[in-house]
Amino acid sequence: MRERIPHEIVASVLAGTTAFIGGNALHLPTWAIFISWAGMFLLGAKPTLRNATRLWAAMPIGSAFGLVIVLLDQRFGTVLGEGQAARNTVLALLILVVNCALMYTGRTRLFGLVPGMFLGFASFFATCFGGFGFDPGNAWAAWASVVVMNALGPVFAYLSRRLTFARPTPTEATTDTPAAEQPVAARV
Fold it and tell me: Are residues 127 and 29 in contact, defined by beta-carbon separation less than 8 angstroms?
């Protein structure tokens, strides 16, 4: 494909627009867009609705597992005592159990994109403990904020390719060679 506008320019302009999404009174985690945007390209060179749907299903679930860990830690974090070692032990056990549940959830067809769940999982912790969201320090607000921002990433990935206004090159239009067998430069 021959891009009329270089992908680097389009992606950079789109990246700049995120300042208007996160740089407001809601203090949304703009970087969460970039996490899922990158996730789209990890799934393939061309963003597809199928891959977006897979991320949209997996990332909020990963964030929800992170939310469960935080809520359980808030409730039971001092059950073994107030000391740091006791709190760390409880947290380690919570992570062990909840992470195991996350991994088993990845065996289901709907939530089979385990790396996507971990992108959501990590995005939630960064949002929650980074003080982002419309109510910093509130785990539920962090979850809602990160889910919305992660959901925008696949949209930005699609736009970053679509707005290059790419056209097939003459050799691409006449070849019957499957994309996987074409040179890398022809696939990008």
Answer: yes
pTM listed for this prediction = 0.84
The pLDDT-based confidence of 181 (bands split at 50, 70, 90) is low
Residue of 61, 51, 6, 62 lying closest to 153 (CA atoms): 51
Which residues are within 8 A (CB) of 120 and not within 5 positions of it... i.e. 6 or more apart?
58, 59, 60, 61, 62, 63, 64, 66, 146, 147, 150
Pairwise CA distance, residues 162 & 180, whole Å: 21
Closest CA to 114 of 125, 102, 126: 102
Contact present, 172 and 181 (Cβ < 8 Å): no
pLDDT tens digits, 98-109: 999 999 999 999
Do residues 154 and 37 lie in contact, with contact meaning Cβ atoms separated by under 8 Å?
yes
| Alpha carbon separation from 62 to 90, 106, 122, 155 (Å, rounded) | 20, 10, 8, 19
Where does the chain have alpha helices with state H? 7-22, 31-42, 49-76, 84-105, 114-129, 139-162, 170-174, 184-187
Residue 167 pairs in a beta bridge with 2
Q: Is 183 helix (H, G, I), strand (E, B) or coil?
A: coil
Cα dihedral 80, 84, 89, 90, rounded to 10, equals: 60
